[in-house]
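[recover] target loaded
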C-alpha cells in the first residue's frame, strides 16, 4: 500500500493548506479532486507527483511511503531473465 502520510505531515509542518495548493499554485493544475485523492491515499498521476515536488522543493520519496499488503501474503518477485 502507498501512503501519502509524509506529504500530509510536510504540509502541516510547513503550514500549507489545500486552499493554497489549489488556488496559489494554478500553474500546476492541482484541482480539488486531485488534492482530495492524495489526501485520502488514492492514486495520483506522475504529473501530480512532479507538481508537488516542484511546489514543495522535495523528492518523490519525501511525499509517500510503501507498506506491504496487509493480507498476509508474502509474494516473491518473479524471476526476470534478460536473455
Amino acid at each position: 500500500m502507498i501512503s501519502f502520510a509524509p506529504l500530509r505531515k510536510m504540509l502541516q509542518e510547513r503550514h500549507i493548506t489545500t486552499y493554497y495548493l489549489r488556488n496559489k499554485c494554478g500553474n500546476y493544475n492541482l484541482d480539488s479532486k486531485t488534492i482530495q485523492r492524495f489526501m485520502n491515499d488514492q492514486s495520483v498521476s506522475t504529473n501530480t507527483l512532479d507538481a508537488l515536488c516542484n511546489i514543495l522543493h522535495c523528492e518523490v520519496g519525501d511525499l509517500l511511503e510503501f507498506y506491504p499488503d496487509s493480507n498476509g501474503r508474502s509474494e516473491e518477485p518473479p524471476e526476470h531473465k534478460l536473455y
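[recover] notes: Residues 2-66 form one domain.
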